[in-house]
Amino acid sequence: MAGRRLRCGETDHAPAIEVKPQRIFLQRGAPDKPPLGAPCNGCGVCCASATCPVARVFLLQWRGPCRALEWHAGEARYLCGMLRRPAQYVRLLPHAATPAFARIVRRYIAAGIGCDAPVEAAPPASTTSGRRT
Predict the structure, then answer these.
(1) CA–CA separation, 93 vs 86, rounded Å?
(2) Closest of 96, 65, 97 to residue 81, by C-alpha
(3) What are 90's strand-pairing partners?
(4) How crowded is residue 104: how many other Cβ atoms within 10 Å of its Cβ?
(5) Cα dihedral across residues 37, 50, 79, 53: positive or negative
């Protein structure tokens, strides 16, 4: 590969991933997505745009917004329901296993590590038709 110029997101051993635009729906009061690597602020963009390994394994959900993504209006942020209330989503989870399960979930969603969603988020363009949605 010597002499070949690399495109954005491409490395010597991995081609760039083409990401198609998608529409996600979030609460109006949700904070803006932080920059990649910045502390998580509960914007919900990551979980609304793709499912994590925890949702794939325990919720058997491969696409779409995560069913465990919970809006907490009092805190004006999204939180992971699998981390906060795992028994609500994993019905057969023994009560005694909840703390250990929460630790596993925290590790796999990288809670507290920083924003790891390599997506850009923008509000929809305002409409001038006067229609209310």
Answers:
(1) 8
(2) 65
(3) none
(4) 15
(5) negative
Phi-psi region of 115 (alpha: psi -120 to 50; beta: other; left: phi over 0): beta
- pTM for the structure as a whole: 0.74
Between CA 118 and CA 74, with CA 30 as vertex, the angle to 5 degrees is 135
DSSP one-letter code for 18: P
Please say whether the beta carbons of 80 and 59 come within 8 A.
Answer: no
User: Which amino acid, 4?
Assistant: R
Q: Where are the alpha helices (DSSP H) in 10-77?
A: 45-49, 53-58
- pLDDT for res 133: 44
The amino acid present at 50, given as its one-letter code, is A
Q: What is the widest separation between alpha-carbon atoms in the chain?
A: 58
Q: Work out the pLDDT band at 60, boundaries 50, 70, 90.
A: very high
